Amino acid sequence: MIQRTPYADALTYAIMVAGFFLLIGPFIVVISGASQSVQQVNSVPFNFMPQGEFFTNAQAAWQRANLGNALLNSMIMATLVTIGKVALSAFTAFAIVFFRSPLRHLFFWTVFITLMLPLEVRVVPTYSVAADLFQPFRSILGLFGIEVTLEWNLLNSYAGLTLPLIATATGTFLYRQFFMTIPDELAEAARMDGSGAARFFVDMLLPLSRTNMLALTTIMFVYAWNQYLWPLLMVTDPSYKTVMMSLRALLPADDGTPDWNVTLAGSLIIILPPLLVVAFLQRWFVRGLVSSDK
């Protein structure tokens, strides 16, 4: 046991306070700058006290970046990706843990090893498939001398924004760790009562894994909301732009007025939805992560 001393306590609190200000500092700058005029936000030294120009700046940012449409697109994308990831990872982990296949460990490690592949490695082949879904089939048929001209892509569509992002090794691992804590006797009792795999999954496992599900929902919603590279590749139609793509329109032009107050107001609007999701699901998020480690 570590012995507590006044000096150690003082150092601990000093580190905690410093860490708090390092974390909260950027938010203070954003909130203060978003409520100031262009003259105030560019003044030196910077005034950290909020002013009364937020709604004016927010309106300018809303119109400049078309944030209404971008927020809708990001909400649709984040919601669909989250639902898909939570459902697919639950099904995958259920099959790995409760179906006694001799290859189940191979399947799990095949999925898990994808965590070691950075996005930059996966994005090119994923985009190649999304841009031409029938290309792999044409290549296979070409080996047999069969030529087809079928073409279909997922560009400029919600399917293209969401489907390639649904597969998740993180969610599968989180569910697997929790499912492994379920006693085998529970599955045996359900089998003796005549419950099939689907009923056991829906009636027993899903209620027990509610906290894990909400924790994964929090992680995946924030992950999908913050996506920039993938929407940038998939979208050329302005009507499908997400909020992360719209951030570019909020940056001041090189030869224009440095209206960082408008940029900060738009940024505050953009980060508000994931902040609300995290604040609402924070309790279940912590519980889910703790229970998955038991």
Structure description:
This protein is mainly α and 294 residues long. It has helices at 6-34, 38-41, 54-64, 67-98, 104-112, 119-131, 135-142, 158-166, 169-179, 184-192, 197-208, 210-225, 229-234, 243-250, 260-292. α4 (67-98) packs parallel to α8 (158-166). It is globular. The model has no long low-confidence stretch (mean pLDDT 85). It is a multi-pass membrane protein. Belongs to the binding-protein-dependent transport system permease family. The chain crosses the membrane at residues 12-34, 75-99, 106-124, 158-179, 200-225, 260-281. The complex is composed of two ATP-binding proteins (UgpC), two transmembrane proteins (UgpA and UgpE) and a solute-binding protein (UgpB).
Residues in β-strands, percent:
under 5%
Low-confidence stretches are: none
Shape: globular
Give the full name of the CATH homologous superfamily: MetI-like
Q: How many separate helices?
A: 15
Rounded mean pLDDT is 85
What is the CATH-assigned architecture?
A: Orthogonal Bundle
| CATH C-level category | Mainly Alpha
How many strands? Answer: 0
Pairing-aware structural class of the strands and helices? Answer: mainly alpha
Give helix % range.
over 70%
Order of helices and strands: HHHHHHHHHHHHHHH
Fold-level CATH name: MetI-like fold
Radius of gyration: 24 Å
Major sheet characteristics: none
How many structural domains does the protein architecture include? 1
Spatial separation of the terminal alpha carbons: 23 Å
Family: Belongs to the binding-protein-dependent transport system permease family.
Keywords: Cell inner membrane, Cell membrane, Membrane, Transmembrane, Transmembrane helix, Transport
Transmembrane segments: 12-34, 75-99, 106-124, 158-179, 200-225, 260-281
Pfam family, one: BPD_transp_1
